[in-house]
TrEMBL record:
Key word Membrane present: no
Protein name stated in the entry: Response regulator transcription factor
The keyword Lipid metabolism is annotated on this UniProt entry: no
Keywords, ordered alphabetically: DNA-binding, Phosphoprotein, Transcription, Transcription regulation
Length: 223
């Protein structure tokens, strides 16, 4: 079955462009559009999309609050949120990820990246591109811990290897890349990632990355 996509952006021309790109793919179907967060909530309830392509800056209700309500504990359906961002309006992107978004994508990304991001998010994975993640977190380094603060007690529940894996997840590495870095199998990495998410009470890799930076475990700009 096709992945059902809801387009949320206050610029009609952008929505039209996204629709043209997505409807050219056999496995994607645009089921509706919304021009602000309030309309998005109504459309999610009515249309039950699999993925919501969500703008951040919109009238009436912004993408952060809409994301929080769509993915929160009172959610009405299975919709996952993929945030659209431009790097001159990024101050809310980390908040959107904390609110429950499964990833973020640049508005000027090539068409194939948009399509692939929707497929990844629909499959239950997090869209965490390493280069974009580092640029975003580096930009807001002043608002994140310096790494000198004591780490939260919850990190003490992780094993040494799980901490290593969390650091690599925060850098945006895939399971295959982490496996190569640590000289273990991908299955082992998946197990470690699962343990990290469970122990820290996190939903996915995106939240794990944000947690790693906010806790001071990883410093922006660190390799």
């Amino acid at each position: 079955m096709a992945i059902r996509v809801l387009l949320v952006d206050d610029q009609p021309l952008l929505r039209t462009g996204f629709r043209m790109i997505l409807e050219a793919e056999q496995d994607l179907a645009v089921v509706g559009e919304a021009g602000d967060g309030l309309q998005a909530l109504d459309q999610v309830r009515a249309l039950q999309p699999d993925v919501v392509l969500m703008d951040i800056r919109m009238p009436r209700m912004d993408g952060v609050e809409a994301t929080r309500q769509i993915t929160g504990p009172e959610r009405d359906g299975p919709a996952k949120v993929l945030v659209l961002t431009t790097f001159d309006l990024d101050e809310y992107v980390v908040e959107a990820l904390k609110a429950g978004a499964s990833g973020f994508l640049l508005k000027d990304a090539p068409a194939h990246e948009l399509v692939q991001a929707i497929r990844v998010v629909a499959a239950g994975e997090a869209m965490l591109a390493p280069s974009i993640t580092r640029r975003l977190l580096d930009k807001y380094a002043d608002h994140l811990p310096s790494g000198e603060e004591p780490v939260p007690d919850t990190l003490n529940t992780l094993t040494e290897r799980e901490v290593e894996v969390l650091k690599l997840v925060a850098r945006g590495l895939s399971n295959a890349e982490i496996a190569a870095d640590l000289f273990v199998s991908e299955t082992t990495v998946k197990t470690h990632v699962g343990h990290v998410l469970t122990k820290l009470g996190l939903r996915d890799r995106v939240q794990a990355a944000v947690y790693a930076y906010e806790s001071g475990l990883v410093r922006p700009g660190a390799q």
